[in-house]
Design brief:
The chain is an alpha/beta fold. It is built from 14 helices and 8 strands.
């Protein structure tokens, strides 16, 4: 190795040992004597000498590697130093610009937050004295509302929806919580959901009993003492609130029948692939007790599904012949002006009936809502709709526990199952989303 030099060549993007085969051949010959070598205690001096020689040889080769590396990298190191100097010159003003833009973006978001809060306080009368606490709940404000891509209509609809839901929930808590209303309200404001409040109320009652020295209620494997059938009459929202109150009281509730006219036979199994999926939007009503007329249809949306594929759509705004409640307009985006020149309810339903033909009707929560409006309007229009129907809401309830769903509302299931719903609360959009939901529910049930 003393006579043999490692000859290398460096070019941009390439470095090589020109005499690599020769060096490898010489090293193979030199190191051949170590093959099969077995050292013994008597060979200790020879082993030390071999270590010295092999270490020297290795150091010589590695030093050459380091020498070549330094020579090869020297131009790049000089180049990198110059580039870093240039970048530093640009970074100084760039940092200032970024800081300015970041501050402006923060100001814009803060201005939008103030706009949202102002809108909230303009429309939060239903929340009463608890409005501020609802707004400050960690579960109320959605950071997506501050994005530039989020339109005012979108966040206003979301704010209205949360106000309505919170007002209903808080009213239910006041009706059901009794002496524990304050604690349960505080618990609710943590995440703005009634889930778990029934169990929390039971805990509060148990603690209060212990503190008062009252004997604890007897515990049995089945705490139900019997059943009672109640007949509740009211709007859909009122009935839903009644169910929430009963649930918070710790009662097990089962809807046996909503007692509304249902001329159509119900299908209970998703064992078909062709159907018409539909959804309605309505005007809302303040109720007969407040001197208001019944709610009427404001939009019908439907899609025809053949062998699992959407093949045709139906979308019709409807003149309900009455004012649309402002709250409903904010949720759906449908205004009195939009429906003023549209067909009346009976005419629109006749067109819908022609579209449906003899198809199976599929919808979400239609048994307790949409079919009521369909049947009532059909009678006024002098037509009969006797198509079988399938309610995805009712079927989803049978899968809720196994799937771990929090609820079976269409918006929740769409998000949970990855279903696109770009314009929720518009009939055409909800119908399309529900058609996809039917297919996913069918797959889950198999």
């Amino acid at each position: 190795m003393d006579e043999l030099q490692l000859i290398s060549r460096q070019e941009p993007g390439q470095i090589s040992i020109d005499n690599f085969p020769e060096l490898k051949s010489v090293l193979t010959a030199m190191l051949s004597r170590y093959q099969g070598m077995v050292y013994t205690e008597s060979m200790l001096p020879a082993a030390k000498a071999d270590k010295t020689e092999l270490s020297r040889l290795r150091t010589e080769i590695d030093n050459r590697r380091k020498e070549i590396k330094r020579a090869y990298l020297a131009p790049y190191n000089d180049f990198e130093a110059q580039v870093k100097e240039l970048l530093a010159m640009v970074d100084a003003p760039l940092s200032e610009v970024k800081t300015f833009l970041s501050e402006m973006e923060a100001r814009e978001k803060e201005a939008k937050r103030q706009e949202i809060e102002t809108y909230f306080f303009q429309n939060c009368a239903a929340l009463g004295a608890l409005a501020g606490q609802v707004l400050n709940s960690p579960a109320f404000f959605d950071s997506k509302w501050l994005n530039k891509s989020t339109a005012a209509k979108t966040w206003k609809t979301a704010v209205d929806s949360k106000i309505t839901a919170a007002a209903r929930d808080l009213q239910s808590i006041q009706a059901a919580a009794g002496p524990h209303a304050g604690a349960m309200t505080a618990k609710y404001l943590e995440n703005l959901t009634t889930d778990g409040l029934a169990a929390y109320r039971s805990q509060l009652a148990a603690v209060a009993a212990v503190e008062s020295g009252a004997p604890a209620a007897p515990v049995s494997a089945d705490r139900r003492q019997g059943t009672m059938t109640l007949r509740l009459t009211g709007s859909g929202e009122e009935l839903a609130q009644a169910m929430e109150v009963l649930t918070m009281l710790g009662m097990d509730c089962e809807i046996l029948d909503d007692d509304r006219p249902q001329p159509m036979p119900e299908r209970t199994a998703p064992d078909f692939d062709s159907f018409v999926c539909f959804d309605l939007e309505t005007s809302g009503t303040y109720g007969a007790a407040n001197g208001d007329a019944p709610a009427e249809i404001t939009e019908i949306g439907a899609v025809r599904v053949v062998n699992g594929e959407i093949t045709e759509t139906f979308s019709q705004l409807v003149n309900p012949g009455r004012k649309i409640l402002p709250r409903i307009s904010r949720i759906t985006g449908i205004t009195d002006a939009m429906v003023s020149d549209q067909p009346d309810v009976e005419t629109a339903l006749r067109s819908f009936a022609d579209f449906v033909g003899d198809s199976i009707l599929v919808g979400h929560n239609i048994k307790s809502s949409d079919l009521y409006y369909i049947d009532r309007t059909a009678k006024r229009a002098g037509i009969r709709l006797e198509n079988p129907f399938f309610d995805t809401y009712r079927f989803a309830r049978t899968l809720k526990e196994a799937q771990g769903w929090e609820n079976v509302k269409l918006e929740y299931l769409s998000e949970a199952l990855g279903i696109d719903q770009p314009a929720a609360h518009r009939a055409w959009c909800d119908a399309q989303a529900n058609a996809v939901l039917y297919g996913k529910l069918k797959a889950l049930a198999q």
